[in-house]
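User: For my dataset I need records formatted as: sequence, then structure tokens, nothing else. Please produce one.
Assistant:
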Amino acid sequence: MLQFITHRRNGLDEIDGAKAVLDGGCRWIQLRMKDATPSEITDTGLRLRSLCDQYGATFILDDHVELVDAIGADGVHLGKNDMPVHDARQILGNKIIGATANTLADMKAAVDAGADYIGLGPFRYTTTKQKLSPVLGLDGYRAIMSEFRRISTLPVVAIGGIELSDVPGLMATGITGIAVSGSLLTAEDPSAATAALIAAISLQQNK
């Protein structure tokens, strides 16, 4: 599974970037607009909802639980400083809720709160996110996932500066998928880079 998180880069806005990765085969888009107003997020979100529908893609909104229904998103992804998963579940019912984690304790808390998947990271330093948690690296993923898989089968998505060459090692730790942002948008051909990343993930999953 490949998740794409929108980010403005190389002249591509949220819609242009999403279309490029959708053309490459990605079927999970998260709209992330940290500094935008609710009206700006809603406007972009409605356009992105329509685009995702054309491709049969899942559409997740970052942080803004209160806008999920208005935009028609399939769910929300919550950072560690956003609304608690339990509270969001009371509002959103059975919609998808993802939770950010940096430690095994974070992951256990997400499971207990009823998250549908966990975004674990960061793998390495990335410029696309402010207030970065401690970098885990491959050894960190191995240690955390070894413990986590003893207690839960919940999907775990790695995130944070991940490149194509990182896929084999990361997938071997027991994660379910990978989330990327800037690395695809800075590629010479974002659609081709997306396809290559999906192929690498699938190869590891089928081993």
